[in-house]
Amino acid sequence: MRTDSHNNPTAFTTDIARQAGLREGIDFSIGDSFRYGPNSPLEYTARLIGDPIGITIRVIDAVGFYTHTGSQRWSYIALPPQVWGNMSPAFKAATIGGMYHREGGTEMKKLFPAPFLF
Questions:
Q1: Domain boundaries, the chain
Q2: At CA 76, angle to CA 2 and CA 17, rounded to 5?
Q3: 67 φψ region: left (φ > 0), alpha (ψ -120 to 50), beta (else)
């Protein structure tokens, strides 16, 4: 799974990492390439360096669940900024655990002791 092989519980891309202000070579490196569909542009998964939960929280804090055009970043979850912003760090981590579960990850389950939220 892209999640496990990239230490990235939500499998976000290098474009999202950059939008969130992460630094290549410090917070992430360029991972495997993929396409969302046969005619879509080539994307790269961000390979996270360091704490995957903390970095993912930083990313979602910075860019949220919606693109600048209003589209959902993830097909299975989209929280309004005020909901995410009012969550405790533990609840954010549990939400990321649910996202990780939806992405099909298995190797980092030990990082998410709370039950998955969805």
A1: 2-106
A2: 50
A3: beta
Contact (CB, 8 A) for 33 and 44 = yes
**pTM (predicted TM-score):** 0.93
Over residues 38-91, the pLDDT tens digits come to 999 999 999 999 999 999 999 999 999 999 999 999 999 999 999 999 999 999
Token pair in block for residue 9? 């519980």
H/E element, 50: none
Neighbours of 2 (CB within 10 A): 19
Given its phi and psi angles, is residue 64 left (phi above 0), alpha (psi -120 to 50 degrees) or beta? left
In the chain, DSSP assigns E strands to 28-34, 43-48
Tokens for 91? Answer: 């609840």
